Amino acid sequence: MKTLFMIVIVILALALQSAVPSFGQTTTSEKPFVVGADNNESSKASLDLLAERAGRDKLIVFVARLGTLEPAQSLRRRRLHTALEYLQSTRDFPAERLVSAFGDPISKEGRIEVYLDNKLFMIFLFKRNENFASEP
Q1: Which residue from 32, 64, 89, 116 has the highest number of Cβ atoms inside 10 Å of its Cβ?
Q2: Cα–Cα distance, 71 to 74 (Å, whole number)
Q3: Global pTM?
């Protein structure tokens, strides 16, 4: 009887350990906003949201990645330039708080990953060999 009681206690302890997260740790992680860059209005709205969330003191980091069958390195530069130019000219965002980098190519759509507070905040997805949609 004593052995059965100990087995039940051990099983219960193991079940609780796997079911309950450790104290002091959060289990929720915010998923980044994913934006199709082929829609001009949603791209602008997303960049406006980014500028608003960055406020007056946060740094924004952009990482441009080419996608499958996108060999033109200049495409990454054009995509970054479009996003940075919008924030600087339209939102009057200071250039010293904008950081841009080139990441390794990926096996999906081309993208720009945007980091805010060292967390992936937003992803702009591009159709093959496309930049942000042009003004209508």
Answers
A1: 64
A2: 9
A3: 0.76
